[in-house]
Amino acid sequence: MNNITIQEEYSLPSKGLVYGKPFDPVVKLRSMTVAEEMKRLTATENPYKTMSEIIEDCLVTKLPIPVYDLCLGDYQYLLHKLRVVTYGPDYSLSVMCPFCGNFFDRSINLDELKVNEYTEDILKELVVDLPTTGKKVELRLQTPRDLDKIEQKKKEMKKQFPDMKEDPTILLNLESLIKSIDGQPVNPATIQNTLKKLPLRDSMKIMQRAEKISGLIGIDNGLVSECPNCGREINSTFRFTSEFFRPEID
């Protein structure tokens, strides 16, 4: 049997401008095969690494950096396009109306979701003046590798400190997001102790800014639906379900 795959060309929403060296953002992506699906279904402690490798395997034109080290906006964009080139753009999901409680199914076209592309305004958003300490913090764009690393560190901390009752997620997220403080690169050996003493108001400023930045590059996850029962307009967010990589094939 000939290895027949579909290939499509796409351009990364970052335009290749948020990395150490700018690069051509245009890539060609082929559809997944059984080999990639076998890998996707294999149990792993590093799900983002696995999915990044699958995307990498399906890139006909290779990038100068691993998919694992792309910003999340570029990674999620390629994830969506991999689904489109493999199964098509139609995607079904269930929506609940918060006004009348009605559940209904709707279909969306993944190719019609809004894509936010890089602008120079993003660079301004990466610098945050903290309201309590007055420190100037420079943020970085998280990557799939960062998200796997956060989960790995959580497991390591629980093994090292089995009696620890606190959830370290916010601490590890802050550690992952901060590139420098007052112009000085963070010290990996001391950053956690520094962050534990950070006023909560300052930490919330960082997390809120990071959330804002994450929406400036990549697929816009906002969805607008109309409830067929009460006719009200519903604002919701895109959700990954089993339909994303295991759709019904007519």
Name some characteristics of this structure:
250 residues, alpha+beta, 2 domains, four-stranded antiparallel sheet, 8 helices, 12 strands
Task: Show the helix and strand layout.
Elements: E1 7-11, E2 26-30, H1 34-40, H2 47-58, H3 72-87, E3 90-96, E4 103-109, E5 115-116, H4 121-125, E6 127-129, E7 136-139, H5 144-160, H6 169-177, E8 178-181, E9 184-185, H7 191-196, H8 200-214, E10 218-219, E11 222-226, E12 233-237
Antiparallel strand pairs: 1-2, 3-4, 5-10, 6-7, 7-8, 8-9, 11-12
What would you note in describing this structure?
This protein has 250 residues and is an alpha+beta fold. The protein folds into 2 domains: 7-117 and 217-237, no CATH class; 121-214, rbstp2171, CATH 3.30.2220. It has 8 helices and 12 strands. The protein has helices at 34-40, 47-58, 72-87, 121-125, 144-160, 169-177, 191-196, 200-214; strands spanning 7-11, 26-30, 90-96, 103-109, 115-116, 127-129, 136-139, 178-181, 184-185, 218-219, 222-226, 233-237. The strands form 5 sheets. The chain has a 4-stranded antiparallel beta sheet with strand order 6-7-8-9. Helix 2 crosses helix 3, helix 2 (47-58) runs antiparallel to helix 5 (144-160) and helix 5 (144-160) packs across helix 6 (169-177).
Question: What's the gyration radius in Å?
Answer: 20 Å
Shape: globular
Percent of residues in helices comes to 25-40%
Q: In what range is the share of β-strand residues?
A: 15-25%
Strands ordered across the widest β-sheet: 6-7-8-9
Number of domains: 2
Strand segment tally = 12
| Through-space gap between termini | 23 Å
* Helical run tally: 8
Structural class comes to: alpha+beta
